Amino acid sequence: MKQYDYLIVGAGLYGAVFAHEAKKAGKRCLVIDKRAHIAGNIYTEEVEGINVHRYGAHIFHTNNKAVWQYVNQFAEFNRYTNSPVANYHGEIYNLPFNMNTFNRMWGVVTPAEAKAKIEQQRAEAGITEPKNLEEQAISLVGTDIYEKLIKGYTGKQWGRPCTELPAFIIKRLPVRFTYDDNYFNALYQGIPNGGYTAMVEKMLDGVEVRLGVDYLAEKAELDKLADRVVYTGPVDAYFGYKLGALQYRSVRFETETLDTDNYQGNAVVNYTDAETPYTRIIEHKHFEFGTQPKTVISREYSAEWKPGDEPYYPVNDEKNGALYAEYKKLADAEPGVIFGGRLGEYKYYDMDKVIEVALDVVGRELA
Ligand code: UDP
Q1: What is the DSSP-derived secondary structure letter of residue 205?
Q2: I need a surface site. Which of 88, 145, 200, 289 has the fewest CB within 10 A?
Q3: C-beta 95 within 6 A of ligand 1
């Protein structure tokens, strides 16, 4: 009999949910993480009394009531509603694309006028069936918005032209013919008071966690400890990149503490032109309505992932999708190992989906 039922590789959201549920069912779990801290990419760290989202802003939002109730066991959520603004060469537009955006762009006032404008631009561009992100964007919001708010930002974010990206990426954003600036079409939304790290700490309460442990470097030894493995790292790294490397986008954060109480007046400002080298600036205190005398901001620079970088976004184009399908076959055939999460499943997951899937998988596992 081995020492643990489950070795959970990665102390991020997927690993923490799995571990919490397995422990609750009486299973012996060991969670390990390569990093020196828990919570994966939702890790927050306090600076000047402000919870700084170290690996990029995370705004919890969901339509799934069960998932909302689930996370509320571990934290109290505030009423933060994401309403980013776009800065295009100094012109400010509300996001997501809504009547405020259309009014600022074209001077239109009614939904009917906005729809007519978009339809006219879509027709002029001659798009009937959108084949890629550019065509999808133009057909949803017209050429002007595509040029000013999407083309430059998306090019920077993905390092590829919009003509080479799948349409679904832009469908993440709502298009609304109301004056509603809420970025998400979600029934439930907020930021956990006290930060995500505290929330994950609660999930992992009573679970053994070892930090600074590199699973792939010590795989043979670690595998001896547990009957089953839950692996949430990059799927291609698990298999030694033997079919080739999947592509990821990485993000570099330039974080600064500033001696002002309010730098940009909003948590998220997207720089949607192609020239500004960063994609957006996050001012962390605004996620929690902070009144501290100082502020902390992070500029986000998007880059192609290379070995040694942190992988953030899977690149969901055809080539990578096909390669992942091959890795998925290997993963499915790997005895005693469950692959999960954004990196383990090479999927552009939001937090609520990660929880939903982790709960489903652990539920079936323990059944
Ligand atoms: N996007 C854009 N302009 C913006 C914000 C987003 O064109 O000002 C596009 C871009 O292609 C991006 C996608 O919408 O990759 C999804 O944006 P989201 O904010 O959901 O990305 P995340 O927060 O996950 O990085």
Answers
A1: T
A2: 289
A3: yes
Taking residues 157-180, what's their average pLDDT?
Answer: 91
Average pLDDT, the chain: 97
**Residue 84 buriedness (CB in 10 A; 0-12 / 13-18 / 19+):** buried
Structure tokens that stand for 351 in this block:
């937090």
For residue 142, give both structure tokens: 């017209």
d(C-alpha 327, C-alpha 33), whole Å: 22
What 3-state DSSP class applies to 32?
strand
Which helix (H) or strand (E) segment holds residue 331: the answer is helix 318-333
Residue 37: both structure tokens together: 């801290």
Q: Is any ligand 1 atom within 6 A of the Cβ of residue 269?
A: no
**Ligand 1: does its nearest atom lie under 6 Å from the Cβ of 169?**
yes
| Residue whose CA lies nearest to ligand 1 atom number 11 | 154
pLDDT in tens, 106-156: 999 999 999 999 999 999 999 999 999 999 999 999 999 999 999 999 999
Contact 241, 352 (CB under 8 A): no
172: annotated active-site residue? yes
Q: What is the largest CA-CA distance in the chain?
A: 71
Helix axes 351-366, 65-72, angle to 10 degrees: 90
Q: What ligand 1 atom has the least distance to the C-alpha of 348?
A: 24
With bands split at pLDDT 50, 70 and 90, how would you rate the model's confidence at 316?
A: confident
Beta bridge partners, 50, equal 47
pTM: 0.95
- What tens digit of pLDDT does each residue of 54-87 get? 999 999 999 999 999 999 999 999 999 999 999 9
**Which of 52, 70, 81 shows the shortest CA–CA distance to 13?**
70
The secondary structure element, H or E, covering residue 26 is: none
C-alpha 207 chain-centroid distance? 25
- The residues that bridge with 93 in the sheet, in sequence order, are 86
What is the per-residue pLDDT for 168? 87
Mind giving me the DSSP string for 141-160?
HHHHHIIIIIHHHHHHHHSS
